[in-house]
Predict the 3D structure of the following.
Amino acid sequence: MDKKPCPFCGGTDLATPPGVAIVVCGDCGACGPTRLPHPRSDSLTILNAFTGWNERVNATEKEKSDG
Ligand SMILES: [Zn+2]
């Protein structure tokens, strides 16, 4: 799936802590929004985390382009 780089530092060292649907930037420590972890599927938990992360990245980029 599409993993957007960090909107704050451009880093691509993105980590998903186990059991938590959240993305953390390994370069600057920025976090995406916390999503619900999937009870049985780590891959779906990570998918949820990156869905939230990508939404955050899109929103941040829009804020920048709006001035
Ligand atoms: Zn970062």
